[in-house]
Amino acid sequence: MYSEWDFFETEYYGGNITEGCMRSAGTLFGSYIGGLKGEQKLGWLGYLVGSHLGSWIGGMVGCMFFEV
């Protein structure tokens, strides 16, 4: 869900398709990994916090990969 919005947000603010794909892929993987790790530590609350935090960090990492 978050990755599609990141893709469209990037396109809306003048980014190109490659930047949108990199950011949305980072968001998708970050949300998955963050949710998985958070659930292992704290249960359902950890999943909720981990997926949100992971999606934000993953989106930023995706943007950094695009810039490099």
Structural description of this entry:
This protein has one domain. The chain is mainly alpha-helical. The model has no long low-confidence stretch (mean pLDDT 89). 90% of the residues lie in helices and 0% in strands.
Main attributes?
3 helices, mainly alpha, 68 residues
Whole-Å distance between the termini?
26 Å
The tally of strands reads: 0
% residues in beta strands: under 5%
The H-and-E topology, N to C, reads as HHH
Residue share in helices?
A: over 70%
Oligomer: single chain
Which structural class is indicated by helix and strand composition? mainly alpha
- Low-confidence runs of at least 5 consecutive residues: none
**What would the principal axes of the Cα set say about the shape?**
elongated
Structural Rg: 12 Å
Q: Given the structure, what is the number of helices?
A: 3
Round the mean pLDDT to the nearest integer and report it. Answer: 89
Q: How many structural domains?
A: 1
